[in-house]
Request: fold
Amino acid sequence: MKIIVNEGFPDTEVTINCPKASDDVLNMVTLLQSLDKKLPGVKKGQTFLVDSRDVLFFDTVDKHNFIYTEDDIFDTSLRLYEIEEQLSCIGFIRCSKSVVINIAKIKSLCPDFGGRMEVTMSNGERLIVSRQYTKLLKERLGLK
Amino acid sequence: MKKFLGVLIQIKSLAAMIFTGLILAYIAAGWLYSIVKNVPFEYSIPFIFVLQGAVLAIAISVLWFTLLSDAIIKKMRFYLRLIIFVVALVIVLSVCFLTFFAFHTNWAKLWLIISGLFIIVVTGISILGEIYFRATGKRYTYNLEEYKKKIMI
Reply:
């Protein structure tokens, strides 16, 4: 991997030099594209494109899905399983039946009785990872 | 309505389990009493005992559901919920015993000592558990930071 810093460039450019477009290369492209993922979110009747990197977590309440950022909450028509599928490669993980969290926005972790885990997000919001998903989160973080 | 019925079913199931436990405890205690005191084993349960058992089972299951099931209180640390549950349980049991039976002063003293010890032991275990979890949490948070560094690259 080679990173060339060129201050004259207006934007970041990625060039992949390869003998053929193998599955690994295509996966790399998908991953790079997903880094720039924007999600449609509705707030007070207006639609915004929310940068996935700004999202703390997604929550479902009474069959309505919400995007939580540091300062805002947006309504979204995306289903939780769609979000999980699209964003798992950039550090999003399911933590209960109704919540998908952004690992990059977790401030701290603390296990609790009953195999659950308490997660504190960067804005201080505390979420509970259910026992079923605690195992997955620990595997993802390389914890035993 | 659907949610309410769901809650009711959970409380009923818990109450049924607790009631079964109380009846089994009554049978075991009666059997032991008959052996220790060398008196014939009584094969019947007074109806008032069954009613008292049902009231107690419902009260405990409501407490359990409210404090420990995650259905109502979701974000409070479990050790705090456990301590509150135990204190509330002792209060409910004390109220039931005072209402259902005419307590002798000696028994009341014994009950206070046992329930006090029970609260102290559960509180101690809960706090020790919480200290352990916080220490583990620090290790997990360290691993999390390492993971974040990896995904940032």
The CA atoms of residues 107 and 113 of chain B lie 10 Å apart.
